[in-house]
Amino acid sequence: MQAKVFVTRIIPDAGLEPVRAACAADVWDDRLPAPYDTLIERVRGVDGILCSITERIDANLIEAAGPQLKVISQMAVGYDNIDVAAAQARGIAVGHTPGVLTEATADLTLALLLAAARRIPESVEYIRKGEWRTWEPQTLLGHDLAGKTLGIVGLGRIGKAVAKRAAGFELRLIAHGPRLTDAEAAAVGAVRVDLPTLLREADFVSLHTPLTPETRHLINPTTLAQMKPTAILVNTTRGPVVDQTALYDALTNGVISGAALDVTDPEPLPADDPLLTLPNVVIVPHIGSATVGTRNQMARIAADNLIAGVNDQPLPHAVPAQI
Ligand code: GLV
Is 76 touching ligand 1 by the criterion CB < 6 Å? Predict the structure, then answer.
């Protein structure tokens, strides 16, 4: 008998086809994610769940699924929406999709950094509003990159890929991470520093740390005050790493100069959020991994993890043990 699985979103065929071929798949096919109570109903009795960052997979949901549940396969590298410890305590394997989205996310980080530094969205608006009358010596002036300092918070896979790209823009690189060594930083041309030094010296601060209880609101009124008034903050990791109210205050009071965000808190960001009224903020809707090739690879890996798990095989990309 085929394993029963629930797929929480319509994922690319590269992943959906193998899942449908190997399992009896129930697929949530709305554009919007299923409400939590509906999820609970749909996961009852399944052997595997293929989910994404939009689902809260907590201990209650894992319990509700039942004792036959073998695997939770997340189509993302981050898994802060999943109670991994609760799953692993019940012997349920948890999978994710590391590696394949590194380059796409690093590309987007540089795109956001450049967009904010060179005021691209404001410039686009300027033309649309009919304000482009002539070339002006002092209009829409942004920040140079060459010779400036980029501070990378979290020098993991994505942080390192950002460092490689940033070196091409002749940025000086400094990096901070709780377990980062001098040698690891030097391997990508960065100097390891502590967080206060990074915030004090960086012209651009880019966040690449996962969301954990320790990193929630890592960027807060105190850390924002340590940054340069000319600094730009880039966040492509998880919204709650930044205290967004503090960010709004910092941007309106000249504590820092700009921000570029792929992630917000909450997501989606309500259309009337005050951040959206600021000209010095660039916000895109969590598109770090949103390329055709990358999403296909993520879907394929999520499918491989799911199929391995329901067949009692080790997952090709398991989340490390948390218990
Ligand atoms: C996306 O945010 C991911 O974690 O893959």
Answer: yes
Pick the residue whose CA is nearest to atom 5 on ligand 1: 76
pLDDT tens for 275-288 read: 999 999 999 999 99
Span from the CA of 135 to the centroid of ligand 1 (angstroms): 41
- Per residue in 144-178, pLDDT (tens digit) is 999 999 999 999 999 999 999 999 999 999 999 99
Contact 229, 257 (CB under 8 A): yes
**Strand duo 204-207 + 149-153: pairing:** parallel
Please indicate whether residue 25, judged by its CB atom, sits closer than 6 Å to ligand 1: no
Task: Give CA–CA dist 301/296, Å, rounded.
Answer: 9
User: Atom 4 of ligand 1 has which residue's CA nearest to it?
Assistant: 78
Tokens 């509906």 appear where?
38
The domains spanning 3-100+292-310 and 102-283 adopt the same CATH topology: yes
- Atom in ligand 1 nearest the alpha carbon of residue 96: 5
For 165, the enclosing helix (H) or strand (E) is helix 157-168
Model pLDDT, residue 323: 84
**Six-digit token pair at 221?**
């009124």
pTM of the model: 0.96
Distance in Å from the first CA to the final CA of the chain: 32
Question: How far is ligand 1, taken at its centre, from the CA of residue 131, in Å?
Answer: 38
Give the CATH H-level superfamily of domain 102-283: NAD(P)-binding Rossmann-like Domain (3.40.50.720)
Known catalytic residues are 238, 267, 286
User: What CATH architecture applies to the domain 3-100+292-310?
Assistant: 3-Layer(aba) Sandwich (3.40)
Break the chain into its structural domains and give their ranges. 3-100+292-310, 102-283
214-221 long-range contacts (CB < 8 A, ≥24 apart) are 214/178, 215/241, 216/240, 216/241, 217/241, 217/242, 217/243, 217/246, 218/153, 218/242, 219/243, 219/246, 219/247, 220/246, 221/246, 221/249, 221/250
Residue 302 CB less than 6 A away from ligand 1: no
For 64-100, what is each residue's pLDDT tens digit? Answer: 999 999 999 999 999 999 999 999 999 999 999 999 9
